[in-house]
Design brief:
- There is one protein chain.
- This protein is an all-alpha fold.
- The protein is built from 9 helices and no strands.
- Helix 1 runs antiparallel to helix 6.
- The chain is globular and about 60 Å long.
- The two termini are 33 Å apart.
Amino acid sequence: MKLSKGRMLHVYIVKLVFRILVFGLVIWAYLTRPEYFDLIFSAEIRPGHSMPAGAWGFLGIWGLLMAGMVLHMMPSNWSLTMGSKKEFADYYQPVQGYDELAMYRYVQKNNISAIWVLLAWLSANAIFGALYVWNIIGFRELILLSVFYYVCDLICVVIWCPFQQFFIKNKCCVNCRIFNWGHFMMFTPLLFIRNFFTWSLFFTSIVVMLRWEITLLKHPERFWEGSNATLTCASCQEQICRIKGRKFTDKTR
Protein backbone atom coordinates (compact mmCIF):
# COMPACT_ATOMS: atom_id res chain seq x y z
CA MET A 1 0.00 0.00 0.00
CA LYS A 2 1.37 3.41 -1.03
CA LEU A 3 0.14 6.56 0.63
CA SER A 4 -0.48 9.75 -1.29
CA LYS A 5 1.88 12.66 -0.80
CA GLY A 6 1.72 14.13 2.69
CA ARG A 7 -0.60 11.47 4.12
CA MET A 8 2.11 9.93 6.32
CA LEU A 9 1.80 12.91 8.67
CA HIS A 10 -1.89 12.10 9.08
CA VAL A 11 -1.01 8.48 9.87
CA TYR A 12 1.38 9.58 12.60
CA ILE A 13 -1.11 12.06 14.05
CA VAL A 14 -3.65 9.23 14.31
CA LYS A 15 -1.00 7.06 15.98
CA LEU A 16 -0.24 9.87 18.43
CA VAL A 17 -3.92 10.30 19.33
CA PHE A 18 -4.21 6.53 19.86
CA ARG A 19 -1.17 6.51 22.16
CA ILE A 20 -2.59 9.41 24.15
CA LEU A 21 -5.78 7.39 24.63
CA VAL A 22 -3.76 4.38 25.80
CA PHE A 23 -1.87 6.62 28.22
CA GLY A 24 -5.18 7.97 29.52
CA LEU A 25 -6.42 4.41 30.05
CA VAL A 26 -3.29 3.48 31.99
CA ILE A 27 -3.56 6.64 34.14
CA TRP A 28 -7.18 5.73 34.87
CA ALA A 29 -6.10 2.25 35.96
CA TYR A 30 -3.26 3.72 38.04
CA LEU A 31 -5.62 6.07 39.89
CA THR A 32 -8.72 3.91 40.24
CA ARG A 33 -7.75 0.27 39.63
CA PRO A 34 -4.14 -0.14 40.85
CA GLU A 35 -4.83 -3.85 41.37
CA TYR A 36 -4.89 -4.24 37.59
CA PHE A 37 -1.14 -3.71 37.56
CA ASP A 38 -0.72 -6.63 39.95
CA LEU A 39 -2.33 -8.91 37.37
CA ILE A 40 0.82 -8.63 35.27
CA PHE A 41 2.48 -10.79 37.89
CA SER A 42 -0.38 -12.86 39.29
CA ALA A 43 -2.82 -13.60 36.47
CA GLU A 44 -2.70 -17.11 35.09
CA ILE A 45 -2.78 -17.17 31.30
CA ARG A 46 -3.80 -20.56 29.99
CA PRO A 47 -6.59 -21.98 27.80
CA GLY A 48 -9.89 -22.22 29.60
CA HIS A 49 -8.76 -20.02 32.49
CA SER A 50 -10.91 -16.98 33.21
CA MET A 51 -9.02 -13.71 33.66
CA PRO A 52 -10.33 -10.33 34.86
CA ALA A 53 -10.98 -7.70 32.21
CA GLY A 54 -8.03 -5.67 33.45
CA ALA A 55 -5.65 -8.54 32.82
CA TRP A 56 -6.93 -8.94 29.27
CA GLY A 57 -6.46 -5.21 28.76
CA PHE A 58 -2.82 -5.30 29.81
CA LEU A 59 -2.27 -8.46 27.78
CA GLY A 60 -3.74 -6.67 24.77
CA ILE A 61 -1.44 -3.67 25.24
CA TRP A 62 1.55 -6.01 25.57
CA GLY A 63 0.58 -7.80 22.35
CA LEU A 64 0.10 -4.50 20.55
CA LEU A 65 3.54 -3.29 21.60
CA MET A 66 5.22 -6.56 20.62
CA ALA A 67 3.48 -6.52 17.23
CA GLY A 68 4.65 -2.94 16.69
CA MET A 69 8.27 -3.96 17.14
CA VAL A 70 7.93 -6.95 14.83
CA LEU A 71 6.39 -4.71 12.14
CA HIS A 72 9.29 -2.28 12.56
CA MET A 73 11.56 -4.97 11.19
CA MET A 74 9.48 -5.49 8.04
CA PRO A 75 10.25 -3.32 4.98
CA SER A 76 6.72 -3.79 3.64
CA ASN A 77 5.11 -1.94 6.55
CA TRP A 78 3.28 0.93 4.84
CA SER A 79 2.55 2.76 8.11
CA LEU A 80 6.21 3.52 8.87
CA THR A 81 8.02 6.64 7.78
CA MET A 82 11.18 6.51 5.71
CA GLY A 83 13.02 7.52 8.85
CA SER A 84 12.57 3.92 9.97
CA LYS A 85 12.59 2.14 6.62
CA LYS A 86 15.80 3.63 5.28
CA GLU A 87 17.76 0.73 6.78
CA PHE A 88 16.27 -1.63 4.19
CA ALA A 89 17.89 -2.17 0.79
CA ASP A 90 14.47 -1.79 -0.90
CA TYR A 91 14.53 1.94 -0.18
CA TYR A 92 18.09 2.67 -1.15
CA GLN A 93 18.48 4.81 -4.28
CA PRO A 94 22.22 5.39 -4.86
CA VAL A 95 23.42 8.87 -5.65
CA GLN A 96 25.92 8.55 -8.46
CA GLY A 97 29.43 9.70 -7.61
CA TYR A 98 28.74 10.62 -3.99
CA ASP A 99 31.68 11.61 -1.78
CA GLU A 100 32.50 8.63 0.43
CA LEU A 101 34.74 10.69 2.68
CA ALA A 102 31.89 13.14 3.31
CA MET A 103 29.60 10.22 4.06
CA TYR A 104 31.96 8.78 6.67
CA ARG A 105 32.39 12.21 8.24
CA TYR A 106 28.63 12.49 8.46
CA VAL A 107 28.34 9.04 10.02
CA GLN A 108 31.13 9.78 12.50
CA LYS A 109 29.53 13.05 13.57
CA ASN A 110 26.16 11.36 14.05
CA ASN A 111 27.69 8.45 15.93
CA ILE A 112 29.25 10.82 18.45
CA SER A 113 25.90 12.58 18.87
CA ALA A 114 24.16 9.23 19.30
CA ILE A 115 26.59 8.22 22.05
CA TRP A 116 25.75 11.43 23.92
CA VAL A 117 22.04 10.67 23.55
CA LEU A 118 22.57 7.16 24.90
CA LEU A 119 24.56 8.39 27.88
CA ALA A 120 22.00 11.09 28.67
CA TRP A 121 19.10 8.65 28.37
CA LEU A 122 20.66 5.94 30.50
CA SER A 123 21.73 8.47 33.14
CA ALA A 124 18.26 9.96 33.41
CA ASN A 125 16.57 6.57 33.64
CA ALA A 126 19.15 5.30 36.12
CA ILE A 127 17.63 7.83 38.53
CA PHE A 128 14.22 6.16 38.21
CA GLY A 129 15.88 2.76 38.57
CA ALA A 130 17.55 3.88 41.79
CA LEU A 131 14.25 5.23 43.11
CA TYR A 132 12.68 1.86 42.38
CA VAL A 133 15.49 -0.08 44.09
CA TRP A 134 15.17 2.19 47.14
CA ASN A 135 11.38 1.58 47.20
CA ILE A 136 10.61 5.26 46.72
CA ILE A 137 8.57 4.38 43.64
CA GLY A 138 7.05 1.04 42.64
CA PHE A 139 6.64 -0.99 39.49
CA ARG A 140 3.35 0.76 38.76
CA GLU A 141 5.17 4.09 38.45
CA LEU A 142 7.77 2.55 36.14
CA ILE A 143 5.03 1.16 33.90
CA LEU A 144 3.33 4.56 33.88
CA LEU A 145 6.66 6.17 32.95
CA SER A 146 7.13 3.70 30.11
CA VAL A 147 3.66 4.45 28.71
CA PHE A 148 4.45 8.17 29.03
CA TYR A 149 7.54 7.57 26.89
CA TYR A 150 5.26 5.67 24.48
CA VAL A 151 3.40 8.94 23.87
CA CYS A 152 6.54 11.10 23.84
CA ASP A 153 8.02 8.91 21.11
CA LEU A 154 5.48 10.24 18.60
CA ILE A 155 5.49 13.75 20.03
CA CYS A 156 9.15 13.73 18.96
CA VAL A 157 8.12 12.70 15.44
CA VAL A 158 5.16 15.02 14.97
CA ILE A 159 5.64 18.09 17.16
CA TRP A 160 9.06 18.60 18.77
CA CYS A 161 12.09 16.43 19.49
CA PRO A 162 14.68 17.36 22.14
CA PHE A 163 17.15 14.85 20.70
CA GLN A 164 16.92 16.54 17.33
CA GLN A 165 17.16 19.99 18.88
CA PHE A 166 20.05 19.44 21.28
CA PHE A 167 21.98 16.36 20.16
CA ILE A 168 21.63 14.98 16.63
CA LYS A 169 20.62 18.23 14.89
CA ASN A 170 19.17 16.35 11.93
CA LYS A 171 16.92 18.39 9.70
CA CYS A 172 13.98 15.96 9.87
CA CYS A 173 12.92 12.52 11.08
CA VAL A 174 13.62 10.93 7.70
CA ASN A 175 17.30 11.71 8.29
CA CYS A 176 17.28 10.84 12.00
CA ARG A 177 20.28 8.80 13.18
CA ILE A 178 18.41 7.21 16.11
CA PHE A 179 14.91 6.84 14.70
CA ASN A 180 14.67 3.12 15.49
CA TRP A 181 15.86 3.62 19.04
CA GLY A 182 12.30 4.58 19.92
CA HIS A 183 11.22 1.23 21.34
CA PHE A 184 14.41 0.84 23.35
CA MET A 185 13.89 4.28 24.86
CA MET A 186 10.22 3.83 25.69
CA PHE A 187 10.80 0.44 27.33
CA THR A 188 13.95 1.36 29.28
CA PRO A 189 12.05 1.64 32.62
CA LEU A 190 10.78 -1.91 32.19
CA LEU A 191 14.31 -3.29 32.52
CA PHE A 192 14.06 -2.81 36.29
CA ILE A 193 10.92 -4.97 36.60
CA ARG A 194 11.68 -8.69 36.58
CA ASN A 195 8.75 -10.15 34.71
CA PHE A 196 8.13 -11.97 31.44
CA PHE A 197 5.97 -9.21 29.98
CA THR A 198 8.30 -6.34 30.87
CA TRP A 199 11.54 -8.07 29.95
CA SER A 200 10.13 -9.47 26.71
CA LEU A 201 9.31 -5.92 25.61
CA PHE A 202 12.65 -4.48 26.66
CA PHE A 203 14.85 -7.18 25.15
CA THR A 204 12.85 -7.28 21.91
CA SER A 205 13.45 -3.54 21.67
CA ILE A 206 17.17 -4.26 22.00
CA VAL A 207 16.90 -6.60 19.00
CA VAL A 208 15.24 -3.82 16.96
CA MET A 209 17.95 -1.37 17.99
CA LEU A 210 20.82 -3.78 17.30
CA ARG A 211 19.43 -4.59 13.86
CA TRP A 212 19.45 -0.87 13.10
CA GLU A 213 22.98 -0.34 14.39
CA ILE A 214 24.40 -3.37 12.56
CA THR A 215 22.81 -2.22 9.30
CA LEU A 216 24.27 1.26 9.79
CA LEU A 217 27.68 -0.26 10.38
CA LYS A 218 27.48 -2.42 7.24
CA HIS A 219 25.60 -0.01 4.96
CA PRO A 220 26.16 3.62 6.06
CA GLU A 221 25.29 4.79 2.55
CA ARG A 222 21.62 4.04 3.22
CA PHE A 223 21.46 6.57 6.07
CA TRP A 224 22.76 9.75 4.39
CA GLU A 225 20.88 11.85 1.88
CA GLY A 226 24.16 12.55 0.09
CA SER A 227 24.37 8.87 -0.86
CA ASN A 228 20.70 7.84 -0.73
CA ALA A 229 18.42 9.94 -2.93
CA THR A 230 15.34 8.59 -1.14
CA LEU A 231 16.19 10.75 1.88
CA THR A 232 16.35 14.08 0.03
CA CYS A 233 13.60 16.67 0.32
CA ALA A 234 13.03 16.44 -3.43
CA SER A 235 12.18 12.75 -3.13
CA CYS A 236 10.15 13.02 0.07
CA GLN A 237 6.51 11.98 -0.25
CA GLU A 238 5.75 11.95 3.47
CA GLN A 239 6.15 15.55 4.63
CA ILE A 240 5.97 14.59 8.30
CA CYS A 241 8.06 17.70 9.04
CA ARG A 242 5.18 20.07 8.23
CA ILE A 243 4.40 20.79 11.90
CA LYS A 244 7.95 20.78 13.25
CA GLY A 245 9.58 22.23 10.16
CA ARG A 246 13.09 21.42 9.01
CA LYS A 247 15.37 22.53 11.85
CA PHE A 248 18.87 22.10 10.50
CA THR A 249 20.76 21.60 7.28
CA ASP A 250 23.35 18.95 6.48
CA LYS A 251 26.70 20.72 6.98
CA THR A 252 28.77 17.80 5.75
CA ARG A 253 27.90 18.27 2.10
